[in-house]
Amino acid sequence: MKQVNYTPEATIAILAAYAANPTVETVEKLAAEYDKPKKSIIGKLSREGVYQKTAYITKTGDKPVTKVELVAQISDQLGIDEGLEGLEKAPKSILQKLLQNV
Fold this sequence. Notes:
Layout: H1 8-20, H2 24-33, H3 38-47, H4 67-78, H5 92-100
C-alpha cells in the first residue's frame, strides 16, 4: 500500500491557501503548518498544476535581457539584417549604451 503524504482535505486546504495568495511566504507558511519541507509543498503544488515559479529579476528590478536580444534590438534600430555577428561577445554594458544611442 502506498503511503499518502497529503490527505485529500490537506490538499484542498493547501490549494485554497496558495490560490488566495501565490507567494513564497505562503509556501513557507504551509510548510510550517503541515510540518513538511518547503520543497514538498512546492512539489505538491506543481503536481496539482497551480505552482507559479517566481520570475527572475535583476538587481535593479528589471527583467533580464540577454546579449543576443540586445544585438537584435540594435540591428532592428539600425535597419541591418546581418553583419553584426560577433557583437554579442561585447560587454553587456557596452551593448546597452550602444542601444541607447542608436
